[in-house]
């Protein structure tokens, strides 16, 4: 049974653009925690004056005991922040991540694991990238599902779904957990949930869009009913 991970990036982007009023991100996290979300994720680059390190700490605290994954680029200052914050998971996200940050990751990953944190990598669904994550002793990988979720061709959808299933099965055999993120919504999630090796379904924009009409609590419970 897959778990529901609520990615908060879409909500944060909306509030920073001034399109959302009346509810703060910590309040969203509190409501979502009480509504049954299994985990949260949030990207942080340390470069936005609109969302400070103090803001990040408040959001993490609002998650209470719910699993929180901090998504960062493998930069030294962000690594140190992730090491010190009470997050359960660190997901490294960057273009050409293994080529551009290989030496840094070899230093960062063991320290994070020694601190009791899970380490994940955001990857395209390619076996060569999975092998590199395995060599770095990754606990999880977060596969980009957009080749499936954004594909309008039925045959292309099936092919992309099969590739995700192959990746997930291979990762599971090698002791790596699997999450899928990217364009996931209420209509396309079921085939992803049916991939046995997938542990986490990461959703964000679809839930916040639905929450406008039915409220956040109902939007979350509706999605949870899809992944159970």
General description of the model:
This protein has 228 residues and is of the alpha/beta class. It has a single domain (3-221), classed as TIM Barrel, CATH 3.20.20. Helices cover 50% and strands 18% of the residues. The chain has eleven helices and eight strands. It has helices at residues 9-16, 25-34, 53-62, 76-84, 97-114, 127-135, 146-149, 154-173, 189-193, 205-214, 216-227, and strands at residues 3-7, 39-43, 67-72, 89-92, 118-123, 140-144, 177-181, 198-203. It has an eight-stranded parallel β-barrel, surrounded by seven helices. Helix 4 links the parallel strand 3 and strand 4 (89-92). It is globular and about 45 Å long. The protein starts with a strand and ends with a helix. The relative contact order is 0.14. The mean pLDDT is 94.
Question: Which descriptor suits the 3D outline?
Answer: globular
Count up the domains.
1
**SSE string, helices as H and strands as E:** EHHEHEHEHEHEHHEHEHH
What is the CATH class name? Answer: Alpha Beta
Gyration radius, in Å: 17 Å
Which regions have little confidence, pLDDT < 50, spanning 5+ residues?
none
- As a percent range, the share of helical residues equals 40-55%
Number of separate strands: 8
Mean pLDDT: 94
Beta content: 15-25%
Instruction: Please name the fourth-level CATH homologous superfamily.
Output: Aldolase class I
Query: What is the makeup of the main sheet?
Result: 8 strands, parallel, barrel
Class inferred from helices and paired strands: alpha/beta
Q: Largest beta sheet: what is the strand line-up?
A: 1-2-3-4-5-6-7-8
CATH fold group: TIM Barrel
Do you know the CATH architecture?
Alpha-Beta Barrel
Give the helix tally. Answer: 11
């Amino acid at each position: 049974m897959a778990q529901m991970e609520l990615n908060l990036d879409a909500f944060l982007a909306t509030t920073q653009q001034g399109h959302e009023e009346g509810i703060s991100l910590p309040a969203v996290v509190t409501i979502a925690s009480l509504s049954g979300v299994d985990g949260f994720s949030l990207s942080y680059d340390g470069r936005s004056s609109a969302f400070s390190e103090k803001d990040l700490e408040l959001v993490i605290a609002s998650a209470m005991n719910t699993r929180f994954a901090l998504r960062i680029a493998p930069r030294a200052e962000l690594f140190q922040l992730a090491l010190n914050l009470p997050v359960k998971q660190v997901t490294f996200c960057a273009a050409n991540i293994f080529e551009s940050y290989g030496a840094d990751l070899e230093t960062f990953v063991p320290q994070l694991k020694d601190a009791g944190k899970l380490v994940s990598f955001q990857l395209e669904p390619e076996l060569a990238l999975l092998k590199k994550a395995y060599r770095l002793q990754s606990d999880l990988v977060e596969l980009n599902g957009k080749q499936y979720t954004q594909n309008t061709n039925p045959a292309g959808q099936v092919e992309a779904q099969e590739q995700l299933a192959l990746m997930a099965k291979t990762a599971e055999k090698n002791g790596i957990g699997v999450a899928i993120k990217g364009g996931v919504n209420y209509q396309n999630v079921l085939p992803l949930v049916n991939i046995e090796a997938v542990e986490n379904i990461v959703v964000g924009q679809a839930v916040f869009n639905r929450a406008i009409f039915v409220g956040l609590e109902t939007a979350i419970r509706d999605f949870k009913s899809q992944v159970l």
